Amino acid sequence: MPIHNNEIADDFDRLADLLEIEGANQFRVRAYRDAARTVRNDTRNMADRIEDGEDLSEIAGIGEDLAEKIKTIVETGELPLLEEVRLRVPDALSDLMRIEGLGPKRVKALYHNLDIETIDDLKDAAENEKIQELEGFGRKTEHIIKERVERFAGAEKRTTLLVAEDIAESLVEYLKQSKGLKDIVIAGSYRRCKETVGDLDILVTAKKDSSVMKRFVDYDEVIEVILHGKTRSTVRLRSGMHVDLRVVPEVSYGSALHYFTGSKAHNIGVRKLGMKKGYKINEYGVFKNDKRIAGKTEKEVYEKVGLCYVPPELREGRGEIEAAKNNALPDLVTLNDIRGDLHCHTTATDGHNSLKKMTEAARERGYEYIAFTDHSKHVTVARGLDKKRLLKQIDAIDRLNDKLDDIVVLKSIELDILEDGSLDLPDSVLKKLDFTVCSVHYKFHLSSKKQTERILRAMDNPCFTIFGHPTGRQINEREPYQVDIEKIIKGAVERGCFLEVNANASRLDLNDDACKLAKDNGLKVAISTDAHSVSDLDFMRFGLNQARRGWMEAKDVINTLPLKKLRKLFQRG
Ligand code: DGT
Ligand code: CA
Ligand code: CA
Ligand code: ZN
């Protein structure tokens, strides 16, 4: 069974933790952490890449040594260096690093002085007030640790859609080979394209003598069978993900799909409508006086209660039932509508592929335009563009455009919004660009009032076009900064600028709720990948998921426009 990207990433993360606790060189530790992130966020499976004969060292940020290590993990399931380090440093110490506020130094001190190896050890020690006696800890720190351990233990673990897809796709491929299988579909939050999923809900129809249930519990990624029945089983996979599998009769397929797709709030709404008509609706069908009158398809279920078909992304109980009743559902934006990508990086700053290669890749994806938004020089990256280098890039783009006739390269930059709300390059240079992306990359901890003012002030500059990753959150890693997003949305409408839906699978920023808020306020967005390499261009569909969940249509998204119209929008007042 192929090794998943997240497993390779976990190995590298663990290795980085243990090496850091051991006191290894910072650069070495950093290299493994970066590799973990690169692999985890790759839209393609490392195992597939190897099978296709690709050279992994050509992936941005993966050198020859790392490429070799990835290959070893894929082939043997193990990373020998990690095994070696594990002999010296207890593996569980790596878990302690997941507790906020515990760095390598503290973990080491806890281990050497109090024999704390596991989260449980840590909890016991905190409860027995052992930690406060340690040098450099104190009562307050002990209290904070105790609280964080409790939160950590109770924290709901949700998986990003990108990682969930990787896990789900190979399982579905495997199940498809079962004897007597007919339909197979993943329902639940996965089908609704939520940014993260709790567990996977797989639904199948199959012949009576089908082997699908047995095959499911026999899957070699299963580490625990929680429930094993004829029509329903639940397992836990190596990744920690729980999976439910349900076998339903064909006559109930549509009803079951509807029921298990959810959300619960949406289901309740539909059931209520059914009750008004005297129907009983459950996962087996729509019933009138115990006679099944619908259930084979989802469409049938909706029709019976007087609704048109509701796309899964809208099934959140946010007004979609009312809209479906009035035939007023949005015509959701699709990947086909997208004509270009407005936020991409190259080797000029922290991207991993050249201007030319990125443009070629955009053309392969059928785009009419691509914009390069390498970083300005302020705080973000060491090699950010100053005026001179930006002018050089503008020249290079002019020359490239001369040679191309089926795609246009747009000139842009990702500017830092400085603390006082100014932008970090003078307007005289910015005017030479087609548009700008402006982002907050530092001073995340301002009050909501100050942060909001800072951003609005930046938007006052007519050179400000698109506000990049507007809340700064990174899923499971960094909370959004404090900001009044509604004020920002309204401010953007007033000034004629736009907000970004950053499609990077671990950002998704704006998220679905904010997309809806933007739409309700008449603000258009740019769905952009923030690609740092060619394969990152494929993040586009993850941004689309959020926009669709936020009810957005093609007309709400500026990069669905042909270039001429887009250029007009870029001209502010
Ligand atoms: P998740 O797994 O936390 O990301 O979210 P879901 O939406 O996949 O929720 P899950 O796995 O608990 O259940 C799958 C679907 O089954 C859910 O979206 C709706 C349906 N469902 C579950 N429990 C109930 C219930 O008590 N009432 C109704 N009407 N539907 C339910
Ligand atoms: Ca689920
Ligand atoms: Ca479930
Ligand atoms: Zn960027």
Molecular structure report:
The protein is α/β, with parallel strands linked by helices and 573 residues long. The chain has four domains: 150 residues, DNA polymerase beta, N-terminal domain-like (DNA polymerase, domain 1); 89 residues, Beta Polymerase, domain 2, CATH 3.30.460.10; 74 residues, 2-Layer Sandwich (Beta Polymerase, domain 3); 235 residues, TIM Barrel. It is 43% helix and 13% strand. A five-stranded mixed sheet has the order 2-4-7-6-5, sandwiched between helices. It has a five-stranded parallel sheet with strand order 14-15-16-17-18, covered by helices on one side. Strands 8-9-10 form a three-stranded antiparallel sheet. α1 runs antiparallel to α2, α13 packs across α15 and α22 crosses α23. The mean pLDDT is 94. Bound molecules: 2'-deoxyguanosine-5'-triphosphate, calcium ion (2 copies) and zinc ion.
Poorly predicted tracts of residues: none
- Separation of termini? 58 Å
Tally of contiguous helical segments:
24
Number of domains: 4
- State the share of residues found in helices, binned by percent: 40-55%
CATH topology of the largest domain: TIM Barrel
The main β sheet shows up as:
5 strands, mixed
Percent of residues in β-strands:
5-15%
Number of strands: 18
The CATH superfamily title of the largest domain: Metal-dependent hydrolases
Placed side by side, the strands forming the largest sheet appear as 2-4-7-6-5
**What ligand molecules are bound, each kind once?**
2'-deoxyguanosine-5'-triphosphate, calcium ion, zinc ion
CATH architecture call of the largest domain: Alpha-Beta Barrel
So what's the CATH class of the largest domain?
Alpha Beta
Alpha-beta classification: alpha/beta
Radius of gyration: 26 Å
Q: What overall form do the CA principal axes indicate?
A: globular
Average residue pLDDT: 94
